[in-house]
Amino acid sequence: xxxxGKRTQAVHGGTQRSQWGELSEAIFLTQGFAYxxxxxxxxRFIQSGPDEYIYARYGNPTVAMFEKRIALLEGAEDxxxxxxxMAAVNGALSSCLKAGDRVVAARALFGSCLYILETxxxxxxxxxxxxxGADLAQWEEAxxxxxxxxxxxxxxxxxxxxxxxxxxxxxxxxAGAVVIVDNVFSTPVFSRAIEQGADVVVYSATKHIDGQGRxxxxxxxxxxxxxxxxxxxxxxxxxxxxxxxxAWIMLKGLETMDLRVRAQAxxxxxxxxxxxxxxxxxxxxxxxxxxxxQYDLAQRQLGGAGGTMVSFVIEGGKEAAFAFCNALxxxxxxxxxxxxxxxATHPATTTHQRLKPEQRASLGISDGMIRLSVGIxxxxxxxxxILGALSAV
Length: 393
Prior knowledge:
This protein has 393 residues and is an alpha/beta fold. The protein has 15 helices and 12 strands. The strands form 2 sheets. Strands 1-7-6-5-4-2-3 form a 7-stranded mixed beta sheet, sandwiched between helices. A 5-stranded mixed beta sheet has the order 8-9-12-11-10.
C-alpha cells in the first residue's frame, strides 16, 4: 500500500482479515493467546514473528492494524499504540532517557506535558532546559553542550505558535539528540514531520484520529529500531497499551479523518477571518492567516493548511471570555479538541490553570484568550454563532 494516496491508506492500510473475510476490521477482544504446542509457546517467547502474539499488553491483531495504518499515513517505519495521548508522550520520553541525560524542550506546552518535563523527569535525574520554541538562537545555545532528546509541539497549545521542525531537527541531530515532536495540532493529515527531520512523532489519537469524542488513545511513531527496541520494552512492562476495542474505534476514525480535518480547517480559516474584523477581539492567532507571525513557516510545514484550531483574545479579560462562552449556542464548552463538534476552551481557567500567572503570561495565555477547536458543522452556522456570542460580551 506504500504507493497509494493517504486517503486510500486511511481506509485500507494494514488491514488483516480472518478466514471469515469480514469487511470491517475484526475486534479481537482477548487478553491472551493459545499455542499449538509447548514448543511453539517457548519459541514465541524467545522471538515472536510479525503476526504472532503473546499477551494483549504486548500486542493484539486489532491494535497492530491501527499501528500499521497510522505508520503508513505518517511515513514512519513503525508505531506503538498507547492508552492515551499522555501515555504516548511519557512513553516516548521515559523510554529513551536515564539519570544524567539532558533534554531541551520548548516552553510552550500543554500542561500535562509540562508536568512530565518540569516535575517527573527531574525527579529521576534528567536535566530539562526550556527555550522559546520559535527562537532558533535559543535552541542553538541550549543544544551546544549536547542533549539526549529535544521535545516540542509543532504547533503550540493554545497560542498556535509554530516550531520549525526542519531547522530544530538539524540543530538537534548535530548535538546528538533524538527529535520528539508532539504533532497533535498539526494532525496526521497535514503533517510531514518525519520527512522534515523528526525522529519520533507523538499523537493523542483522542483528538483528530478518533475525532468523535468516543475514546482515549495515543500513538508513538518512529523507526522500527526505536519503536521495537526502545519504546515497546518500556511500554509492555509498564502497561500503557491501547485496548483492542479502542484500536477498532481509531481504525474507523482514520477512515474519515482526512475528510473531517480538511472541512474543519476550511471552517477554521473562515472563523479566523471573521473574528479578526470584530472590534471586541484584540488578537487572533491562526497559522493559515497572513497576519500570523509564522505564516510562511506554516505554509511550508503544513503544505498551505492552517489547521483546525483558532485562538483569539477578547477585550475585557475573564469576565468577557466567560460571557462569550456562555452565549454560544452551537459551539460547546469543553477542554477537548479535534472533535467533530466545535469546542470553546478558556485555557487560563482549565487546561493551563495550574500554571502560575507569570508562566501563562510568558506563553501568551491571557485571561481573555479563547481556544476554539473547529468541528464539522456548517461554516456559516459556526460563524454566526461566534459573532453572535461576541455581541453578547
